[in-house]
Design a protein that fits this description.
The protein starts with 8 loop residues before the first helix and ends in a 14-residue tail after the last helix. By secondary structure, it is an all-alpha fold. The radius of gyration is 29 Å and the shape is elongated. The relative contact order is 0.05. The model has no long low-confidence stretch (mean pLDDT 78).
């Protein structure tokens, strides 16, 4: 069964209209300012530059075999 808080659709619309919502409707994103675009570009370059170092660090944390599985010969 569907939950209907107001069985009468007109009453539901009236309740919704009573509340003044000052939040404007969502619109398209505003364009970035030149300073914001520069920050995004620098952050992107930093992440791309750090990727190889992060991959090498993750590769250093490979799972080691258990003590009985190690080859010490």
């Amino acid at each position: 069964m569907t939950h209907r808080p107001y069985p009468d659709p007109d009453r539901a619309r009236h309740q919704i209209d009573r509340h003044d919502d000052e939040t404007p409707p969502l619109t398209a994103r505003r364009p970035l300012s030149p300073m914001e675009q520069t920050l995004v570009d620098h952050a992107t370059a930093a992440v791309r530059g750090a990727a190889p170092a992060l991959a090498a660090m993750v590769a250093g944390f490979q799972r080691r075999p258990a003590g009985s599985e190690e080859n010490t010969a």
